[in-house]
Amino acid sequence: MSQNLLNHIQDPIVWTGLTQVGAAAVLAALVVLLSRRRGLGLEAELSVAFVRGFVQIVAVGLVIGGLLTVPVAWSALILLGMVGGATWISRQRGTGLPGVTQVSFLAITVGAGLVIVTMTAAGAIEPTVRSLVPVGSLVIANAMKINGLALNRLKDELRDKRAEIEVGLALGGPPAAVLARHLRTGVRASLIPVVDSLKSLGWVWIPGVMAGMILGGENPVYAALYQFVIMAMIFAAGGLTSMLTSLLMGRRVMTAAEQLRRIGDDGD
Questions:
Q1: Which of 47, 184, 213, 247 could bond 218 through an S-S bridge, CB–CB 3.0 to 4.6 Å?
Q2: Which of these, 121, 145, 147, lies nearest to 132 by C-alpha position?
């Protein structure tokens, strides 16, 4: 495996890629400079995000390069690690919500996991490390984004509409019925980006998977069909994740006495 990894690192195309990274870094530096000049206060966050993203994606490339020849079972461990990272990142959008870490982990695992397993069984994802890890990461990453949006909107709803919710509970309304509208608002808001992406697919933008397949010489029609499959997987995983997060969180924000818990500033 080490020799295989060394071959990937020494490939001349890697140096071409580093040159391209340098060009992209110049453009990113321009954004950081403009942020500083306009007083946006985002220079540190933008710089850290750019460097962190570069280090993380190269590290993943090295890991995958070294694992291409190992048994497919390793894919499950890699994807589980990605789910852990996705949980940690998206939970921060719901800081203060009770049990946010456990809810996020369960929702992302079920939402993304069900889609990955189903589509692998259907043949859309090859049962190999080379295919499972990249495609699975797309599904998990988008489930993470949607989970974060759902948590953020739900937290805002519970804080901003607290008085309204407490009145409904005081009048004897069942907690599930009183919270229903606010939970639906969180799910709807979280799904707006992926719905808009589906609406604009092929009209406003040609996604990376399809573009890469076409550039690689694949049949353009098949590339289009496979890209739609990818988008459908993202939509399904995101929808399942946000709905499960909404359902679980709707139960956790209520006490045994059917009162709304105080939404604090600390996690869990």
A1: 213
A2: 121
Tell me the backbone φ, ψ of residue 205, rounded to 5 degrees.
-145, 150
- To the question of pTM greater than 0.90 for the whole model, the response is no
| Phi-psi category of residue 39: left, alpha or beta, with phi > 0 → left and psi -120 to 50 → alpha | left
Question: Do residues 183 and 154 touch, judged by C-beta distance below 8 A?
Answer: yes
Phi-psi region of 258 (alpha: psi -120 to 50; beta: other; left: phi over 0): left
* String of DSSP letters for 139-156: HHHHHHHHHHHHHHHHHH
> Which residue, 127, 116, 108, 74, is CA-closest to 230?
116
pLDDT by residue for the chain (268 residues), tens only, comes to 455 556 656 667 777 877 888 888 888 888 888 878 878 777 788 788 888 888 888 887 777 666 666 677 778 888 999 999 999 999 988 888 898 999 999 999 999 999 999 999 998 888 888 788 889 999 999 999 999 999 999 998 888 888 888 888 888 888 888 888 888 888 888 888 888 888 887 777 777 777 777 777 878 888 888 888 888 999 999 999 999 999 998 888 887 877 778 776 555 6
CB 102 within 8 A of CB 229: no
